[in-house]
Amino acid sequence: MHPITKIIAVVIISMVSGAATGADPQSPYCNIILNHLNPCLPYILQGEVKPAKVCCDGVLGLTQYTNAKGGQQNICDCVKAAAILMGAPVDNFSKISSLPKSCGLSVTLPPISSGTDCSQVK
């Protein structure tokens, strides 16, 4: 991963930590979500053809949160907030929902786009 990408990711994780805590204790926190997705930034934003194993491990780590009450919505909210804080178009993060398939996993991640209403994500 490019050094500037790592720096940006650390800053974003710090800025949005706890932003979407949810009422359910099993709901994922933004820092956890972003820590799991951080290794995927080269695939998501830099056009890598296939996600790295460390990225797929992170996606697998999100499995426990994806089925939790509000988990998909929190993932959506956190990713969209991170995109805004990065000053990146939200649509640049649209590859997130394809990560499980690209990694050969059966977990589902929410669609991310400028038109996605995270409050409607189930």
UniProtKB/TrEMBL annotation:
PANTHER family: NON-SPECIFIC LIPID-TRANSFER PROTEIN 2-RELATED. It comes from the Eukaryota. Pfam families: Tryp_alpha_amyl. GO terms for molecular function: lipid binding. SUPFAM superfamilies: Bifunctional inhibitor/lipid-transfer protein/seed storage 2S albumin. This is Bifunctional inhibitor/plant lipid transfer protein/seed storage helical domain-containing protein. Keywords: Disulfide bond, Lipid-binding, Signal, Transport. Plant non-specific lipid-transfer proteins transfer phospholipids as well as galactolipids across membranes. May play a role in wax or cutin deposition in the cell walls of expanding epidermal cells and certain secretory tissues. It comes from Prunus dulcis. Residues 30-118 form the Bifunctional inhibitor/plant lipid transfer protein/seed storage helical domain. GO terms for biological process: lipid transport. Residues 1-22 form the signal peptide. Belongs to the plant LTP family. InterPro entries: Bifun_inhib/LTP/seed_sf, Bifunc_inhib/LTP/seed_store, Plant_nsLTP.
